[in-house]
Amino acid sequence: xKIRLSGxxxxxxxxxxxxxxxxxxxxxxxxxxxxxxxxxxxxxxxxPWEAALGAKIEVPTLDGMVTMTVPAGAQGGQKMRLKGxxxxxxxxxxxxxxxxxLVVPSQLSDAERKLFEKLAxxxxxxxxxxxxxx
Length: 134
Hints:
This protein has 134 residues and is mainly beta. It has 2 domains: 1-27, no CATH class; 31-104, Urease metallochaperone UreE, N-terminal domain (HSP40/DNAj peptide-binding domain). It is built from 2 helices and 10 strands; from the N terminus they run E-E-E-E-H-E-E-E-E-E-E-H. It has helices at 48-53, 110-122, and strands at 2-5, 21-24, 34-36, 39-46, 55-61, 64-70, 79-82, 88-89, 92-93, 96-102.
């Protein structure tokens, strides 16, 4: 990014006005956000039940945490937009795109295992069925 500061450069000679000062701005990598023009991307982990049932989750923004609604039936990899929460640009702000990362618990308690087993026996859902609608 290049910023022009009119009249802030070197002093002009023989009554010529000061020149312009050009600043080159380079953004450092951030552990949570990736800048894409005036928009920002981030990834947030969600539990299977949050994705299936819907949930209100806390999401990081440049201004701090905000509450975002995950709709019921959300999918891993789904992208959601938080309007006006992106990078400041002139008098506006871009959008923040939140990518949902579905995370399954690596260890289950006995009660959790039983609930998942009950769900597996009850559900007719097959994620490998190509004829399902999305």
